[in-house]
Amino acid sequence: MIIRTLCVFLLLQVGTVLMWDRPKFAQPGQFPHQVSIQWSLRQGSPYIHSCSGAILSEYWVITSAYCIFHIPAKSFKIKAGCHNISNTDEYTQTTGAERTIIYDKYTKLVELRDLMPYDLGLIKLQPAFIFNNRVHSIKLPRINNWFSHSYKLNYNMILSGWGSIGYTFHNANMDIMRTVNLPVVPNKVCMDSIATVNRRIELYDTQMCTRPLDGSLSACIADNGAPLIQYEDKTPVLIAILTWNWSPCNTYGIPLVYCRIDPFIKWINKQMKIN
């Protein structure tokens, strides 16, 4: 994915971290809701993994608006059921985009004043995915209710994707899906940490954060739109999608910023119904 590049030279350490969780290889089929969003610069060029997304239905995928903003729908291919995105096997399904829909309040990051609080987009697929145990939709959260289970500083959030895992600007994507467990960072703590390098930035109630405040690896280039999930009674629930990460990746302990899903449930359902 494309990451907003913010060059800073301040080593930030906030609080005491008792443990680090490192990215690890996902198991094949562990995240059947996850898709690789790939696009081609021009006709005839190869398709390259740029972002992730999550399956909402046979015809719909949700992702970061940043990933699809001002890019023609016909430029995308969406792959599901894949573990190694360089390979196509019997589990892989590839489809195209009929249209893309951007949340109407979304504004692309031009000046560093906020971190795109409405960074949400939908992709309508054509043809539809065929659901099986390797390709399936994910459950949406209850409206304004995610925090009743997750507002704890423990490693109960799960992020997955094919992005780079290096401390670098370089887009060293990984072919095999990786995953990491992350703790929630309260928005006030997140704001305070970001303010040490830019006091003009504002976080909104539609956003949330996770570590690394400790500098551990978590997300990087090509992870935008990646689903952050939590399990409820062994059922995965889509809590948020990745919006923003400091660059060089994970170097300064700045938290990851996400767009929460629960404030947008009505909008999501309406768009899937009328389109």
TrEMBL record:
One of its GO terms (molecular function) is serine-type endopeptidase activity. PROSITE patterns: TRYPSIN_DOM. It comes from the Eukaryota. Residues 1-26 form the signal peptide. One of its GO terms (biological process) is proteolysis. Pfam families: Trypsin. Residues 13-273 form the Peptidase S1 domain. Keywords: Disulfide bond, Signal. This is Trypsin-1-like isoform X1. It comes from Ceratosolen solmsi marchali.
